[in-house]
Amino acid sequence: MNTPSSDNIYLPKIAVLDRSVDEIAEVKTFYWHFDDPAEQAAFKKFRPGQFAQVSLFGAGEFPASLPPSPTEEETFFTIRTVGSCTAALHSLEPGDKFGVRGPYGNGFPMEDYYGKNLVFVAGGIGLIPLRSCIIYALAHRDKYEKIQIYYGAKSPKDLMYLQNLREWEEGAGVEFNLTVDRAEATWKGHVGVVGSLFKKPGVRVPVENTVAFVCGPPIMFRFVIKDLQALGFHDGQIVSTMERYMKCGVGKCGHCCIGMAYVCVDGPVFTYEQIKKLGEDI
Amino acid sequence: MKARLVHRDDVLKIVDLLRQKGYEVVAPFFGRGRDTRFDNVTDENRDEIQIHLPNPYHPPKRFVLLQIERLLRIHQREGQIEIEPTYREPKRAIFGIRSCDIAGIWHLDRFFLGREFRDIYYEKRRENLFLVNVVCSDPERDIGAECFCVCSDTGPAARDHFDLQLLDLNDGEFMVVAGSPAGEAMFADPIFRKGTSVHSAKRRAVLESARRSFKPSTTSWFSAAIRHVSAGKVAEQTWEEIGNRCLECGGCSYVCPACTCFTVTDRRVGPDEVERVRIWDACALGGFTRMAGGHNPRKAVHDRRNRRFFRKLSHYFIQRELSIACVGCGRCAAVCHGDVGMPSVVEMIRRSAAEMETHEHAQL
Questions:
Q1: Nearest C-alpha of chain A: how many angstroms from B86?
Q2: Do the Cβ atoms of B173 and B7 come closer than 8 Å?
Q3: In this complex, do A62 and B80 lie within 8 Å of one another by their Cβ atoms?
Q4: pLDDT tens digits along A53-96
Q5: Could you read off the pLDDT of B148-171 as tens digits, one per residue?
Q6: Residue A199: how many other CB atoms lie within 10 Å
Q7: Is A178 left (phi over 0), alpha (psi -120 to 50) or beta?
Q8: What residue spans define the domains of chain B?
Q9: Is A214 helix (H, G, I), strand (E, B) or coil?
Q10: Which stretches does DSSP call E strand in chain B?
Q11: How far is residue B344's CA from residue B338's CA, in Å, rounded to a whole number?
């Protein structure tokens, strides 16, 4: 074997789990670092919206969004257990090792958005990839105009990243709006789908010179797109990340190829204008 | 390109020369029935190698992109993980590879080596691969009813990307063209003799007659199909008809020299050891796009068929991959039980597009 291992696009690097934290039912955040500090330093150059391939040896590999911002110290994934690989990750204990390779994909062009208003619309675990952009934008607060966050979850029990939500709620320089689909009488906040927040008294969504980030389940995505279009947003102003079955993450296995794009290398970030041309649902 | 002559009785000596140089040689043979296959050449079977025979269903693609290939061996012991990439660098020659399959390998080269991410497993298998192309010149034995390389512009004689190319002049001599320095180096052996312009003229005549031996094929409407597929102008109903006939077996992908898709899976091979392997996959299969949790954005069969033909024929991917992803070998047509191989699909698209155009005229 005389080829440098970095030339092997399928070779995962060893990662160590530091700790895992419960977010909501079936969803945990896993803090980890690479065994090799050089790998860690190289990985930390990722952009918001990129993803990584996570290996649980014996179970397989799956693509995962990167919820941290590159401006943060720690690297972590927030993962819902849905299949055999994610279940294997959920069973890990601190100190256990697994594999990570990446970062992959185009990511959000955050520099191109300098001087613009940013409107984040997240539904459920759609907040995972958007968290990276929000933290990044707040870390570069002077580069952007208004920053608004609209976050909807099924119920108060389904709210993620509570620490961040509190910071955004109280923080200066960001307008934060929260809603749940249904709640007990004790819930003091807004009730309704995330799009209903746009019509809440006191809310004014800027349309001119604005980029709207939309991430969430397909049904939420479709309705929010309609709401944004009704407000006057053009399809090119709306950005999202596509989720597809992926095996390689590097444009070879073919599973995520839709329309004219390989989601893994040409995406996963697309404008809604581009998504429509791909010809498949989000 | 340099060329030489080889006498019919010396042609298999090329195989011997390659074996002497340390190449593991695969060549085409007849199976037990009417089937044909590529197999390893041994001292025992060497004389049974066939020059003129129907192209095997199982394309020689599998020698560069294995149907099942181990990528990594992972050792897990006492909390430690060791990952060992398992590379193979065979020194292999394919004798008797047809022009369509040469085009197939060239297609894989561009896909696996020509992009931002290079596939090192493919690269190592490809590096020492020596290709001896045989031009399909015999209308009875070489050129099948399903062949349409003349429409895909890949045959019957490959233009390049071979090391040596053999063409039967039908007079006891073969003309051999060298397509690479490695191929030209073979000419040092005395079996290769100099020819004259008479032989060159003969080669052109044989080729011309071979080109005329192809049966009429619906793929002569390729350009119409490409245009309609690229513009998204194929009626949904046509895709549904194609989908209704698809048995979702994936056979078309498995025999296609230009198909590249694979899946990756881990398998336990010992108490502390796991292998990560990649396996050919097919977009015809329902699970191809199914995500964990069950959501499948491309559930309908006809959507999956639409996908296959868009990927193979659209202008966008022609620009990206430098050619259509069809080499005209006809294998998909030969294996498809629902008769929705490439030639039939091209015909169905053409017919449906023509109908739509007729309607337009009716309105005037």
A1: 9
A2: yes
A3: no
A4: 999 999 999 999 999 999 999 999 999 999 999 999 999 999 99
A5: 999 999 999 999 999 999 999 999
A6: 11
A7: beta
A8: 3-215, 219-261+300-363
A9: strand
A10: 3-7, 24-30, 36-40, 68-77, 80-85, 92-97, 130-134, 164-168, 173-178, 262-270, 273-280
A11: 10
Q: Tell me what pLDDT residue A4 has.
A: 44
CB neighbour list of residue A267: distance below 8 Å, 6 or more residues apart: A105, A106, A241, A242, A256, A261
Q: A260: which chain B residues are within 8 Å (Cβ-Cβ)?
A: 314, 316-317
Whole-number Cα distances in Å, B197 to A228, B3, B8, B174, B179: 73, 11, 19, 14, 19
Token digits of residue B44: 């025992």
Which residues, in sequence order, are CB contacts of B305 under 8 Å at separation 6+?
Answer: B239, B242, B243, B246, B284, B340, B345
Taking CB atoms and an 8 Å limit, are A252 and B264 in contact across chains? no
Q: Contacts of residue B305 in chain A, CB cutoff 8 Å?
A: none
Q: Distances in Å between the alpha carbon of B150 and those of B100, B230, B316?
A: 10, 22, 22
Structure tokens at A129: 């990839």
pLDDT band at B358 (very low <50, low <70, confident <90, very high): low
Buried b (16+ CB within 10 A) or exposed e, A7-28: ebbbbbbbbbbeebeebbeebb
Mutation site, B109, B117, B295, interface A, largest A CB count within 10 A: B117
Identify the three-state secondary structure at position B78.
coil
- Looking at the complex, does the CB of residue B70 fall below 8 Å from at least one CB of chain A? no
| Interface of chain A toward chain B, CB-CB under 8 angstroms | 1, 3, 5, 7-12, 14, 57-62, 82-83, 85-86, 95-99, 218, 243-245, 247-248, 250-255, 257-260, 265, 279-281
Q: Using a CB-CB distance cutoff of 8 angstroms, which residues of chain B are in contact with residue A258?
A: 297-298, 307
Q: What is the mean pLDDT of residues B180-198?
A: 96
Q: Which of B69, B303, B327 is nearest to A253 (CA)?
A: B69
Both tokens of B128, joined, read 């020492």
Instruction: Measure the CA–CA gap between A140 and A111, rounded to whole angstroms.
Output: 10
Whether residue A255 and residue B72 make contact (CB cut-off 8 A), yes or no, is no
Where do the domains of chain A lie? Answer: 8-104, 110-216
Mean pLDDT of the region A126-154: 97
Amino acid A1: pLDDT: 35
Q: Specify burial of residue B256 (Cβ count, 10 A radius: 0-12, 13-18, 19+).
A: buried
CATH code given to domain A8-104: 2.40.30.10
For the stretch B28-48, pLDDT in tens is: 999 988 899 999 999 999 999
Q: pLDDT digit string (tens) for B232-280?
A: 889 999 999 999 999 999 999 999 999 999 999 999 999 999 999 999 9
Does the distance separating the beta carbons of A257 and B311 come in below 8 Å? yes
The answer to whether B67 and B280 are in contact (CB under 8 A) is: yes
A110-216 CATH pick, 3.40.50.80, 3.20.20.60, 2.30.40.10, 3.90.930.60? 3.40.50.80
Chain A CB within 8 Å of residue B318 CB: no
A7/B120 CB distance under 8 A? yes
- Do A255 and B263 lie within an 8 Å CB cutoff? yes
Contact, B147 vs B214, CB < 8 A? yes
Sign of the CA dihedral running B230, B235, B237, B242: negative
- pLDDT at position B363, please? 61
Q: Cβ of A8 and B120 within 8 Å?
A: yes
Which pLDDT value is given to residue A3? 41
Chain A within 8 Å of B266 (Cβ-Cβ)?
yes
Tell me if A122 sits within 8 A of A194, measured CB to CB: yes
Distance from CA of B22 to the nearest CA of A (A): 21
